Amino acid sequence: MGLLDDKVTIVTGAGRGIGAAAARLFAREGALLVLAARSAPEVEALATELTATGAEAVAVAADLTTAAGAERTVAAALEAFGRLDAAFDNAGNGAVPVPLAERSEAEWDDAHALNLRGSWLCLRAQLRVMAAAGRGGAVVLNSGVGALVGGFGDGAQQAAKHGLTGLVKAATADYARYGIRVNAVAPGVVRTPGTEPFFAAGPEFGALVERSTPLGRAGADVEVAEAAAWLLSDRASYVAGVTLPVDGGIAATRRFD
After folding, report:
1. Is 0.85 surpassed by the pTM of this model?
2. With the C-alpha atoms ordered 71, 240, 113, 226, is the resulting torsion angle positive or negative?
3. Which of 48, 151, 217, 232 has an alpha carbon within 20 to 30 A of 171's alpha carbon?
4. Domain spans of the chain?
5. CATH superfamily, with its number, for domain 8-249
């Protein structure tokens, strides 16, 4: 028995990075997967890869900043598997750090469109179906250490991630009575295709990560996926409304310099 055995599970932002790592891990843990991302070739290739290993996975190309895109992923789960048990709302984006007053309105809106509004749209569609079905369920949002501590040059992202903390608490207040658990993971710096250019630019970024993180290193995408898998599983059956740091100790020590 895997952690997610026979759980119909949506993974958004599944084309690469943490989302792809989560999809592979969830498949090994027995989940039936709906993989969603804007890029159809990426999620289709991943679904084909997982199906070849014996997993069950379908791909959905969707713009998750829109209600139609969020609802399409839920509809795909119902069409393919007849129900929805869990979701890892991982889709998000980042930006090059600049001081808060130097952010443009377009950059601010872009940070919030996917990281906060898109997460809410996905969560809303998922909660509606789970509550109506009456079987409970679990959702994990991918937030970030910026939801827990301040950092230089990332104010738009931090505002969005703090919003996710409130979203998790509000969803718990409204939907725990239906047996639906909503939590979040808050990664620190994780090596993914999105962060690799920072590491590749020179040794300075890697050195910053090492001295800013008590564990002395960046995280791996699968380490975040492992935390999400546990929160989605029945082994976390009494955990609700939590934003769980998966950050190598940054939030515990308030170090991010």
Report:
1. yes
2. negative
3. 151
4. 8-249
5. NAD(P)-binding Rossmann-like Domain (3.40.50.720)
